[in-house]
Design a protein that fits this description.
Blueprint (H helix, E strand, L loop, with lengths): L23 E12 L2 H9 L7 H14 L1 H4 L8 E11 L4 E12 L4 H19 L7 E11 L6 E2 L2
Antiparallel strand pairs: 1-3, 1-4, 2-3, 4-5
Length: 158
């Protein structure tokens, strides 16, 4: 790929025309993490924060965000998602929670933005739920791990 697709020949921003693209099964997997103080991590791990099940709420927030991606990212197409799943892995050695999202659709455009948005919002929700005890949490390493479907086929991060 040698050009930015969201700009026309005169450099004006536009929504990419996907009307003639074939509908294919498309999958995107994205990941990210949030690191916190050991005490905060133990609260989340034990399910003891006063607000309840932090990871359960973050999972729902991520799924909801994936469905609203086109409302947040100006040139994204609204998609009919066929599946979104969020998995959390807790790492007590680093006091980190890793989030991985898998988003799927059958359509003319990919679901990378939906997967990435879901990761970010899930991590932001964890931050929101825990900020009363730890304002120094750090979110990072948000990235696309892989995508498949469409003209460009499969892609995996190195």
């Amino acid at each position: 790929m040698n050009k930015l697709t969201h700009f026309d020949a005169s450099g004006q921003a536009h929504m990419v025309n996907v009307g003639d693209k074939p509908h294919t099964h498309r999958i995107a997997i994205a990941t990210g993490q949030i690191t916190m103080l050991p005490e905060t991590f133990k609260m989340v791990e034990g399910g003891t924060p006063k607000k309840g099940d932090v990871l359960g709420i973050a999972r729902i927030a991520g799924i909801q965000a994936s469905k609203k991606t086109s409302d947040l990212i100006p040139l994204c197409h609204p998609l009919a998602l066929t599946h979104v799943s969020l998995e959390f892995a807790l790492d007590p050695k680093t006091n980190s929670i890793h989030c991985q999202v898998r988003a799927e659709t059958t359509g003319p455009t990919g679901v990378e933005m939906e997967a990435l948005t879901a990761v970010q919002v899930a991590l932001l929700t964890i931050y929101d739920m825990c900020k009363a005890v730890d304002r120094g949490m750090v979110m990072g390493d948000i990235k696309l791990l892989e995508k498949s479907g469409g003209k460009s086929g499969e892609w995996k991060a190195r």
